[in-house]
Amino acid sequence: QVQLVESGGGLVQAGGSLRLSCAGSGRTFNSYAMGWFRQAPGKEREFIGVISWSGTSTYYKDSMKGRFTISRDNAKSTVALQMSSLKPEDTAVYYCAASSTYASTNGRAYEYWGQGTQVTVSS
Predict the structure, then answer these.
(1) C-alpha to C-alpha distances, 85 to 37, 65, 90, nearest whole angstrom
(2) Assign residue 116 a region: left if phi > 0, alpha if psi is -120 to 50, beta otherwise?
């Protein structure tokens, strides 16, 4: 079992940066690849990127590359999403999710999900 809690969301101006954090449950968390997704109002859930259980490999959706960076600290059972050069279109609820496999862009491959944290980018 993995329990996930996102934090760090809020209001930020366009062009700014924000760092989201996802806290998991101990050693079990460390065995899962961790993905980040987002969902804007009226939009489908969108894959952002994923980091392997070891933190040595990452994969991002092409449109996210260069602005979004995923990292993890297994000692602290956390995974982070660093966002920069934010745009109003980045406004969404952001979710972290855990998967027993790596690099899946499909949300159905993720067994556990956090509650989400709201990110609002103003122009």
Answers:
(1) 18, 12, 10
(2) left
Cα–Cα distance for residue pair 32/97, rounded to 1 Å: 9
Is 22's pLDDT higher than 90?
Answer: yes
- Distance, in Å, from the CA atom of 35 to the CA atom of 103, rounded to the nearest integer, reads 8
Judge whether residue 42 has pLDDT over 90: yes
DSSP 107: G
pLDDT at 118: 98
User: What element of type H or E holds 85?
Assistant: none
Note the Cα 105 to chain centre separation in Å.
Answer: 12
Shortest CA distance to 105 belongs to which of 37, 24, 8? Answer: 37
Whether residue 1 contacts residue 60, with contact meaning beta carbons closer than 8 Å, is answered with no
